[in-house]
Amino acid sequence: MVVKLLGMTFTELQNWLVNELHQKPFRAKQLFTWLHFRRVASFDEMTNLSLKFRNTLKATAEIVHPEQVDRIESEEGTVKYLLKLPGGPAEAVLIPEPPRFTACLSTQYGCRMGCTFCMTGKAGFHGNMTSDEIVAQLYTISDTTDQRISNVVLMGMGEPMDNWNAVENALNIISDDRGICIGQRKITVSTVGVPGGIRKLVDMEKQYGLAVSLHSAVQSTRELLIPAARAISLSELRKDMLEYTGTTGRRVTLEYCLIEGVNDSIDQAEALADYSRGLPCKINLLVYNPVPGLDWKPPTEETVDRFTEYLYPRCQAVTLRRSRGGDVAGACGQLGASILTKENGTR
Ligand code: SF4
């Protein structure tokens, strides 16, 4: 079996080199640096490795390189990348908000959470990404910009907690200071809150950020938007979040996408204020980006203002983010078109 080098943590790489290829342990640092710091595309570029060792690597391992099928830039600078990875088509996004440059990565081909407002949910599930496929998206984005990627969010296609082993490896790799070295606090894992998922992040005992796609603090409304929420009650989810905040000392971000006539009433705002009371959190309100083929709509400006004004005096921290990248379908909930296109047989 060909070894996928980009998806190996430093420790895994070292163990493999020593135990399988009978190399000295110091080779791991050399190879890891070529892969994740210099990010070279081929073994031939690894000039401080002997030719014999490079040939052994060529015969036993590979460095995955996504093919960039398309790159679409929105008016305000958000860039959506359509990539071809070994497992299928994938999408990733660069969100430039100087001094912050955020890469939004996918973790699965499609998603099985089935969120009714999301294009990826509509596309269905087509498989898990391997850790090297997750990491490779970041390097592809990084190679196309002169700016240093400062932040990473796992908020693209897929539910990260549903592909945990690959995600955990990818987190360890991209935060390793021998590689691209994105600080743990600059990396955010987003989840709808699958049972036991947040605990896995807590168990890492690291400082990664957590964003929970809440979208409603009323169970029935939440289940309407996120069918997978039937597996976890709002009170269980709150308990999990408290465990995260208690262990890491960090606040959790509650993502709340406002959708007309669904979760934008004052009753819903009241439920959200009640739910967030006593939970160290910030509430990130987003206005829904319409998805072709789905009936949901964004609320009017007045409704958005009324909702936010209700929350401001009642909650610790509320931000309203006009979602970026809507004009290139690179915004939250809009990824996944490449999978739908592939299914329709037009690509
Ligand atoms: S919103 Fe996230 S969890 Fe829900 S279907 Fe879309 S990608 Fe999956």
In short:
The chain has about 350 residues and is an alpha/beta fold. It is about 35% helix and about 20% strand.
Overview of this protein structure:
There is one protein chain. This protein has two domains: 3-62, DNA polymerase, domain 1 (Orthogonal Bundle), CATH 1.10.150.530; 67-343, Aldolase class I (TIM Barrel, Alpha-Beta Barrel). It has helices spanning 10-19, 26-37, 51-60, 119-123, 131-143, 164-174, 197-203, 219-225, 234-248, 266-276, 301-311, 337-343, and strands at residues 3-4, 61-62, 67-73, 79-85, 88-97, 100-104, 108-110, 125-128, 151-154, 187-191, 209-213, 252-258, 281-287, 318-321. Helix 7 (197-203) links the parallel strand 10 (187-191) and strand 11 (209-213). It has twelve helices and 14 strands. Helix 1 (10-19) packs across helix 2 (26-37). Iron/sulfur cluster binds at residues 111, 113-115, 118, 120-121, 157-159, 192, 333. Iron/sulfur cluster binds next to helix 4.
For the record, what CATH class of the largest domain applies?
Answer: Alpha Beta
| Overall structural domain count | 2
Q: How would a textbook summarize the main sheet?
A: 10 strands, mixed
If you compute it from the alpha carbons, what radius of gyration comes out, rounded to the nearest whole angstrom? Answer: 21 Å
Characterize the overall form: elongated
Strand content: 15-25%
Average pLDDT over all residues: 92
Task: List the bound ligands.
Answer: iron/sulfur cluster
CATH fold annotation of the largest domain: TIM Barrel
Question: Would you identify the regions where 5 or more consecutive residues have pLDDT less than 50?
Answer: 341-347
Question: End-to-end span in angstroms?
Answer: 30 Å
CATH superfamily of the largest domain: Aldolase class I
Counted beta strands: 14
Number of helical stretches of at least 4 residues: 12
Strand arrangement in the largest pleated sheet: 3-4-5-6-9-10-11-12-13-14
CATH architectural arrangement of the largest domain:
Alpha-Beta Barrel
> Structural class, from secondary structure content?
alpha/beta
Name the helicity range. 25-40%
Q: What is the chain-wise order of helices and strands? A: EHHHEEEEEEHEHEHEHEHHEHEHEH
